[in-house]
Amino acid sequence: MDNIIEMQAITKRFGPVIANREVNFSLRQGEVHALLGENGAGKTTLMRILYGLYHPDEGMIFVRQQAVRIHSPKDAIALGIGMVTQHFALVPTLSVAENVVLGFTGSFRLRYAEIEEQVAAAALRFGIDIDPSAIVGNLSVGQRQRVEILKALYRNAKVLILDEPTAVLTPQEVDALFETLRRLQKEGLSVVFITHKLDEVMAITDRVTVLRDGQVIETVETAHTSPSALARMMVGRETFGVSRRSSMEAGAPALQMVGLHALDDQNMPALKNINLTVRHGEILGIAGVGGNGQRELAETLSGVRPPTAGRILVGEHDVTGGSPADFTAAGVGRIPSDRHKGVVGELSVAENLTLERLMEFTKGMTLDRAAMLAYAEDLIAQFQIKARPTDPIRTLSGGNMQKVLLARVLARNPKVVIAPQPTRGLDIGATDYVREQLLAQRKRGAGVLLISEDLDEILALSDRIAVIYEGEIVGLLPAQEATAEQLGLMMAGAVKEEVNDV
Amino acid sequence: MSKAQFIIEKNENPSVGWRLLLPILSLLGTFILTSGLILWGKANPLEAYYYFLIAPLSSRFSLLEVLVSSTPLILTGVAVTFAFSAGYYNIGAEGQLYAGAIAAAGLGLIVGKLPMPLAVTVMLVGGFLAGMAWAWLPAWLKVKWAVDEVVTTLLLNSVMAYIVSALLNGPWRNPESGWPQSPEIAPSAHLPKLVAHSRLNLGFLIAVLAVIVLWFVLTRTPFGLKMRAVGLGKPAARFAGIDVERTMLISALVSGGIAGIAGVCEIAGIQYHLTDAISAGYGYTGIIIATLGALNAWGVGAAALFFGVIDTGAQTVSRSLGVPVYLGEVTQATMLLVTLAMFLLQHYRIRRRTSWTSS
Prior knowledge:
The complex is a heterodimer.
Chain A: E1 3-14, E2 17-28, E3 32-36, H1 43-50, E4 58-63, E5 66-68, H2 73-78, E6 81-84, H3 96-101, H4 112-126, H5 141-154, E7 159-163, H6 171-186, E8 190-195, H7 198-204, E9 207-212, E10 215-221, H8 227-235, E11 253-263, E12 269-279, E13 283-287, H9 294-300, E14 309-314, E15 317-318, H10 324-330, E16 332-334, H11 339-342, H12 349-354, E17 362-363, E18 366-367, H13 369-382, H14 398-410, E19 416-420, H15 428-444, E20 447-452, H16 455-461, E21 464-469, E22 472-478, H17 484-491
Parallel strand pairs in A: 3-8, 3-9, 6-7, 7-8, 13-20, 13-21, 16-19, 19-20
Antiparallel strand pairs in A: 1-2, 1-4, 4-5, 9-10, 11-12, 11-14, 14-15, 17-18, 21-22
Helix pairs in contact in A: 8-17, 14-15
Chain B: E1 2-10, H1 16-40, H2 45-54, H3 60-85, H4 93-110, H5 116-145, H6 149-169, H7 202-220, H8 222-232, H9 234-239, H10 244-271, H11 282-292, H12 297-321, H13 326-345, E2 348-356
Antiparallel strand pairs in B: 1-2
Helix pairs in contact in B: 1-2, 1-13, 2-12, 3-7, 3-10, 3-11, 3-12, 4-5, 4-6, 4-10, 4-11, 5-6, 5-10, 7-8, 7-10, 7-12, 8-10, 11-12, 11-13, 12-13
């Protein structure tokens, strides 16, 4: 079989970060090819390059053995490449037919009857079940995705890139999508399928290319591999400078989640019946692929997102439904999962450090600015933050910003520390620093909940590890018994067990 | 092969120099844009601009007039800044000003027996509460149901205009002249004059005080820091345990109250009765002033004074040059648009980039 697409030695840098490093990727005529990897592995970047959204710093792209330069999606479409992202580019108030032809209408005048006929014919030809006259705004997510696929095919796409197409779908919609893809594959369509779910790779693809840290680990035939082998390639192994050195006797429960349920921003269930206990003097790691409820869990345990059912106990104290201030008062130290949403960029380091406890820095009616500055000076020294108290916090590096947030939380010796993605985006030095601080908290007797997509971090720091998948805890095991492979299988939803740790 | 291209990129942090240059550039832009119109009106643009900008500052009388016309602008500017700082986009200062004016016109009729200081205090408190009351509904809708305050506060301005009209054509229609204007308020309710034989009154000092209070609250109190935190980063403020809704609600109400004071000062300081034209869009101009002053108390004060100069100049320019009266308004409107455009543009810069393509 011929390669319809070949990408050779593609390198793409964003500032100092290398998103793709000498990536080789080929797509055969008529195959479904999975791009597998964790978040940030460089899958989407590679495909955005192919679709003309990014331009590679180095490397060559061949389409049907011809070297090409793809400057924009327009070029990509002309070459027969279509891409469907997780965020649909559809006009909700227009009909399916209008959306499909939008920007691709030949003549000046629009003949609606003709357009609907054409789109209906295309839908029939490609076997995509959709009513051309339906208004897109009334369609389900799965149906909208079909419109996007039809849109690409209508533009004569011979190569279809699907960026995590199942992330927004129900299991039934996933089945329908796979059926459509199999039919299109028979018609000669080639598909790139970006995913981090192993069962989907096994179910639909012919070959798999595994990316990790921007590099290709291997390209294999799906038939000749196994989920565990793929999990190992995807997660990889690395050693870290900071890790848990001793095991400690865990103490009394510090934080308990009992039958916890919560919704996401779209009001879909994000957390389903979470039963976990974090004990004093332990780090409980929550492993999982991004988007499986981690953000909602951290927000629920910070008082930012109210749970829809269940209870949250800090020690003996029930804080269910409390405000962020109630959680802080109960002894929960919350590191925000998104640093930039945890600080007010335009305010100074001192102001950000004291924002949670302004009443302690008030003299009469006015702010005690001298006390605020002195307090900030103290923490800056203690946490080795490279900044002055009066610097606007947005001018700090990511590592220093994270240190400010750590300082804000840890200065009050919390009983429980919630640490979602605490080292994401940090360099090695800052990463080690943050990990040391978390271990110090454990030693002090705090209960630490570490939520991380970085499996190595989970393995290096946790006493016990729970795995979250689609909002459920699907496994819980002591760190000594955990292997990356086993966790990888759980993270990909291949293994599931009932967990009740209360 | 190399080719040069110009790219526009975002510049998040324009320098201080830029900010200082901004009013001058805005002025220049306005001059260029309006010169054609002034020429068409058969006048010399340079002369017109002399009357706009220099003449108001050249006599004692006109200087005092500048302070008089600045008074409502300072107050609405402060009012808007108060709300905007907390991330509440109050477009309704115009309506809240009229709410304060109605209260003043009404209270002014019944406080005649009170000594002047007490009467004036009653007027000011009444106006503040009236502005606050008018600001309450959209603020409550915002924090309770997340209803967009830009829409509701703006629409309530029209509602208020009809209320004023109903009052002036109904119970308050002047019984002698039949004009739609309310009866004169009692002399003891007049704001005392600061300078004899001028229109400058206590209102100006109240406006200056408002600027100082704004500065103090925003930069020196815990509540002000909470307001700024909410305005600059709602998620972070919420995360830090600040009651975002409460902070926005209070800021919105105080904002309405200050706009109400602007209405009181117009009634009790200048007009002594209510008409449907006591505000020349001061509530809206306040938005521009707050923006031009970069939500900084002193900046807001300075911007309001600058607009006071243009306001005063606009009154003389048509008289002196025989150009149509609305030229002043056109110039002011242009000025507002150019300033807004400049504000947007300062966040971008054009850079020349050379890119290489190997082929």
